[in-house]
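Hi C.,

You asked whether I'd gotten around to modeling the 309-residue construct. I have! Everything is below, sequence then structure, no commentary in between.
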Amino acid sequence: MKHPPSRFASPPSPAGGGRTQRPGRASASGALGALTRSLNQRSATPLLTLAPAAVLLLLGLLGPTLAPQDPLATDIARALQAPSAANWFGTDALGRDVFSRVLTATRLDLLIAFSAVLTSAFAGSVIGAACGFAGGALDRWVGRLVDVLMAFPLFVVAMALVAALGNSVSSVVWATALINLPFYIRLTRAEVAVRRQAPYVQAARLGGAGPLRLLFTVLLPNLLPLLAVQMSLNLGWAMLNGAGLSFLGLGVRPPTPEWGVLVNEGAQYILTGQWWVALFPGLALFGAVYVFTLAGDALRDRLDPRRQT
């Protein structure tokens, strides 16, 4: 006759010779692999939309090398020639190959977008996490500042910042990063405010983790999937913002190849029949924004736990 197990029986020892892992360290190491685990949970169909983004990134890395001609070389004898076998996208008013200039500009536009998004994501997530974790006066004051910033048209704020800092690539990056801050502050503040009393956070606190360790090794690593989604959605908008500033003459200056600059240079020739000077840079910008929007939607479907069933 079998006897029921005693209620005082000791629990089985954990694997690994009875060694247990500290709660804070376990949370951090598990969260750092959240992106990979989430990508393996659902079908691979949405990942196909990431392929165009990968191709665009490859063009950004190899664009200047793949350009068939020097994007800065002028030849007045070939000015404003229509697209042909020798010049796939035609030539501009100075005889420069438009295809080479569009291809070379891919690297600079991607550099501006990624630099701005990474800067705003890092700073915004740290500020928002601190506000959500501490609460009190810090949370109220930062919340009011974010509300004030969001009350203004963000592109107008970026224009004012670039005008104050000067026309340069770094000015465009800082201005674009600043107007992206509210999105990350609000996202991380809301998530940390909800999760700061979660069981795994309480376990790490009982294990001796201090406030900084809780923020940077427990809470923030668990927000990486949501931050990755937000960053991917912001990339296209940041690229459009940088090109818009350059189009208005507030960002990158000619003759540097940049999509906004190229559209601005070709806009005056649209009505005279030289449509290709502005059309192809505009299509490149449209395609890049569309590709990153699709990639953001795909990552959101894969990584956002609120959209998974």
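If it helps when you're writing up: Residues 98-134 form the longest helix (37 residues).

Thanks,
B.
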